[in-house]
Write a structure and sequence with these properties.
With about 210 residues, this protein is an alpha/beta fold. The protein contains 10 helices and 5 strands; from the N terminus they run H-E-E-H-H-E-H-H-E-E-H-H-H-H-H.
């Protein structure tokens, strides 16, 4: 556990409040991009017990993510930022990701002194920060943020599946699977598809009524 707290412990030793950030949904064809910010308590022994099993969300099962989501929220300050597909189309996915991260930080009950972020190409605002390649595997704060963002977005997509039936959003969460492609071929894009994205734009079909 302590090896994934190396960055946090260095900052904690300086008396700093540290937030980890990650996003979910950046590569999807439909739905929002979601970012999460997580401030862990500066107590490695507590975290070793309470958050055992926390890892990069992509390496965990859905059931494990749901279980760890509740554990993280029980011991940490967490917040999410959500940016809609309409805004993604307007400003681009990278800018939308930054906006979602800024919204997550603004929603935290306490503002951090420093950030640990899963790698993004340019700095996020003016905070002191480290942008870590494969950050979910190097920092517990980022791994926790990856789980919060992923679970929150998955639940949003499951709710949208009921609103836009036939696309399978509850199953593939808006990503470019074979099932999703077949649904697009049959139904055309719906209101939550990212209209500027090539797989959607190339269909050249009108939006169905909402």
């Amino acid at each position: 556990m302590f090896d994934v707290l190396m960055y946090e412990m260095r900052l904690w030793s300086e008396g700093k409040v540290v937030a980890g950030l990650d996003e979910a949904g950046r590569g999807a064809w439909a739905g929002p991009v979601v970012a999460a910010a997580v401030i862990l308590p500066p107590d490695p022994d507590l975290l070793a017990e309470a958050l055992a099993g926390v890892d990069d969300s992509k390496r965990l099962s859905s059931a494990a993510r749901d279980r760890l989501y509740d554990r993280i929220r029980a011991v940490a300050a967490t917040a999410v930022g959500v940016v809609s597909p309409e805004v993604i189309d307007e400003i681009g996915i990278l800018n939308a990701t930054y906006r979602a991260m800024q919204a997550a930080l603004a929603a935290l009950p306490q503002q951090p002194d420093a950030l640990l972020i899963d790698y993004i190409p340019r700095p996020l605002g003016d905070w002191p920060q480290q942008r870590l390649v494969r950050g979910e595997q190097a920092s517990l704060s980022i791994a926790a943020a990856s789980i919060i963002a992923k679970v929150h977005r998955d639940r949003l997509m499951a709710a949208l599946d009921a609103q836009y039936p036939g696309y399978g959003f509850a199953r593939h969460k808006g990503y470019g699977t074979r099932q999703h492609r077949r649904a697009l071929d049959a139904l055309g894009p719906c209101a939550i598809h990212r209209q500027s994205w090539a797989p959607i734009r190339q269909l050249r079909l009108p939006l169905p009524p909402t």
